[in-house]
Amino acid sequence: IGECWVFGVKKPFTEVIKANIGDAHAMGQKPITFLRQVLALCAYPDLLDDNKFPDDSKQRARRILEACGGHSIGAYSSSQGIECIRQDVARYIEKRDDGISSDPDNIYLATGASDAIVTMLKLLVCGKGRDRTGVMISIPQYPLYSAALADLAAVQINYYLDEDKCWSLDIAELKRAVTAARQHCNPRVICIINPGNPTGQVQSRQCIEDVIRFAKEEHLFLMADEVYQDNVYAEGCKFHSFKRVLFEMGPEYSTTVEMASFHSTSKCYMGECGFRGGYMEVINMDPEVKAQLTKLVSVRLCPPVPGQALLDLVVNPPQPDEPSYDKFMKERTAVLAALAEKAGLTEQIFNTVPGITCNPVQGAMYTFPRITLPQKAIDKAKAEGQVPDMFYCMKLLEEEGICLVPGSGFGQREGTFHFRMTILPPTEKLKFVLQKISDFHIRFTQEFS
Amino acid sequence: IGECWVFGVKKPFTEVIKANIGDAHAMGQKPITFLRQVLALCAYPDLLDDNKFPDDSKQRARRILEACGGHSIGAYSSSQGIECIRQDVARYIEKRDDGISSDPDNIYLATGASDAIVTMLKLLVCGKGRDRTGVMISIPQYPLYSAALADLAAVQINYYLDEDKCWSLDIAELKRAVTAARQHCNPRVICIINPGNPTGQVQSRQCIEDVIRFAKEEHLFLMADEVYQDNVYAEGCKFHSFKRVLFEMGPEYSTTVEMASFHSTSKCYMGECGFRGGYMEVINMDPEVKAQLTKLVSVRLCPPVPGQALLDLVVNPPQPDEPSYDKFMKERTAVLAALAEKAGLTEQIFNTVPGITCNPVQGAMYTFPRITLPQKAIDKAKAEGQVPDMFYCMKLLEEEGICLVPGSGFGQREGTFHFRMTILPPTEKLKFVLQKISDFHIRFTQEFS
Ligand SMILES: Cc1ncc(COP(=O)(O)O)c(C=O)c1O
Ligand SMILES: Cc1ncc(COP(=O)(O)O)c(C=O)c1O
Description:
GO molecular function (chains A, B): L-alanine:2-oxoglutarate aminotransferase activity; pyridoxal phosphate binding
Structural class of chain A: alpha/beta
Largest sheet of chain A: 7 strands, mixed
Catalytic activity (chains A, B): L-alanine + 2-oxoglutarate = pyruvate + L-glutamate
Cofactor (chains A, B): pyridoxal 5'-phosphate
Family (chains A, B): Belongs to the class-I pyridoxal-phosphate-dependent aminotransferase family. Alanine aminotransferase subfamily.
CATH topology of the largest domain in chain A: Aspartate Aminotransferase, domain 2
Strand order of the largest sheet of chain A: 4-10-9-8-7-5-6
EC number (chains A, B): 2.6.1.2
Shape of chain A: globular
Number of helices of chain A: 15
Distance between the termini of chain A: 37 Å
Number of domains of chain A: 2
Oligomer: homodimer
Helix content of chain A: 40-55%
Bound molecules: pyridoxal-5'-phosphate
Low-confidence stretches of chain A: none
CATH architecture of the largest domain in chain A: 3-Layer(aba) Sandwich
CATH superfamily of the largest domain in chain A: Type I PLP-dependent aspartate aminotransferase-like (Major domain)
Number of strands of chain A: 16
């Protein structure tokens, strides 16, 4: 206690701060009371007689239990997920997208968004040699994508986000990437993460339209990873769902572009990663392919039911006339307001440091600042057989007990270096971390100059 | 209410009885109090102050929460599963196997046994053409295996269980199957389910030894699906774990035969399917392959934490000196005693019906009786483009509202017909179902004679 050992050496810091994973609860965020009350009631229905729980939480729990086999969350559900929860998801999407209709039959619940994303890639990838499926992913990317593509022996087609324009997506770059790829594979899918991980950008409506037009022209299946849809902080930024923009572009697009959108219980204000709740909505999917999908998801029986229950609460939160509403809103707002504050702080503090340049954290939970490394440090890293930004992050961990992920883990333009840091630590701790990293960066630069 | 419609037609029965899936809670089995109390405490730790909960349930919940990031089951765990739970699993295995040691590093927690089985197959399958991996599975089989193998483009090598000898496994049949398969693929894996699904047999110690010897001789990786390890009912039958037998055969075997064993929270006395808890233990796995496995499981982040917590309680149940012990044992014993009674009833009643022959349900949760179908029924089914036992089951569903799975869904010897029924309905309902099926069988036989 109060001591810290890294690689067998006692350290001048008292704890390792893990700012490397987007795991809100692990960083001290408290669960939202309403969500956990309902989950406890579902797990142990004897509590339904307890007057400690508000009526709306009991009513939600009863509704979920009634939809479960034998009224127990210990029963398997259907593979696609519990029907009434899929209906709630569809209603949530309709409300979010101002009335654009959503069909519960197009909703597939999953073991987190990860499971849905991997399943969808698996469904879409096929072919051999020059016919191998190509999948376009942004660089920097969220490593789930590259890992899944490698696993499926699909061709990863990189398109680079424009760091100089706040990590925005440039259609000319998409065209370059797909044209080059057509020489050696069959590009069939484009993946977009919005708001972005690791880069924290929020896409403009215009950009989304352009991507949809591009997907249509190039006959690409569009995978929209929208797990950070509630995590938008920057003034002037707003979350636009790909589905909504697609439908607002008219039938020429809304009836032709094939798409899947992904959401999760792990992010936003709830941060409930451990429950592994998530869903995807598929749009304009060929009925035969959809039948394949339904078969594919049936192999593993069903997603975990507690995660499904949690997802139900997320898409169907307390309403203004319900007893849990005020507390729920207070907790939700506090989390999102703190994240917004921390997003601002992060950009601000890093940009005061010579050699660190940081785009605004418009959304999601990460910053991906660019770091200038002295040539001597680059040489030293290479001599030790290490990637330079890994060398940097390891030194930071050893000297300050702060754990980040080197940019090379996400991909970056040749010759540039970055790290990813989450903005999840509590405000005071985050300030401390930002200060420590800033000091370290200056020291590191001096040491190798 | 009180009316039942199948395929748009009003039926003479008032409910459809689903005796087709091994889903205990869906069939009315009540959750074990202790398990659910701890899960509720983990979900909503405010309840730790509630004096309604016994101390041992609180102490378990505290211990689990302390092992979670930020003390919340809403945090991701490590991909292999929470360390202290893997330790508890290892201790459980050691106790079960009378002291044979188990290393927590060899335990991988999973999203149900399904996930672990699919992951392991994926890890072991490779090659193309005549080098394609062959995987031996029993016929009748649990369809997860054939689906996963088809998905991985592996070669399924069937070995037939001996219906005349209580569905036992015959080494000569294994030899026949592997020898034939070596002509066109590379047999690398043998899968065994013990106690068996759908066939309900429990393997003798001798048989397990023979299988292990066979695996060693043929250089096969042994996958032992032991999810029904507590479900043994027949007099003279006992569960022998493959691991224990392997180690009792001495170092010639225990240090060479590669093996994985699977367990789950879905079966036994708890029947908690919805939580998707499970684990596998790997033994003698090549370190490089194990590193691959560790990488493979990391793609999807982690198994659901509530399922991990539940598994922890299953492997570390209340002890005699703890306040929950008596109630826990009473509930557990009641479930297992009822299953044993129903296993006996099922065999007994079916064997009174001419045209139904039923092996003893020694273990697991199913009976797989053989049915004699009149030639006219077989012809009629074929004329309608249906497999004969599917024709039979559909007719049973329409006329009696009882849902079974035709034997063809599991594989059976050419020209034989079966169905699978679970023994999970409550005793009185099971008696009713057995009587209805018996009457139906006699009527069906008369109708087509
Ligand atoms: C962009 C993105 N997609 C998907 C996921 C996976 O989320 P889940 O926990 O729902 O599997 C994450 C998790 O960090 C993510 O950042
Ligand atoms: C033999 C066998 N293995 C594995 C499973 C899968 O169990 P789980 O729910 O843990 O995925 C089942 C489920 O019925 C089974 O019968």
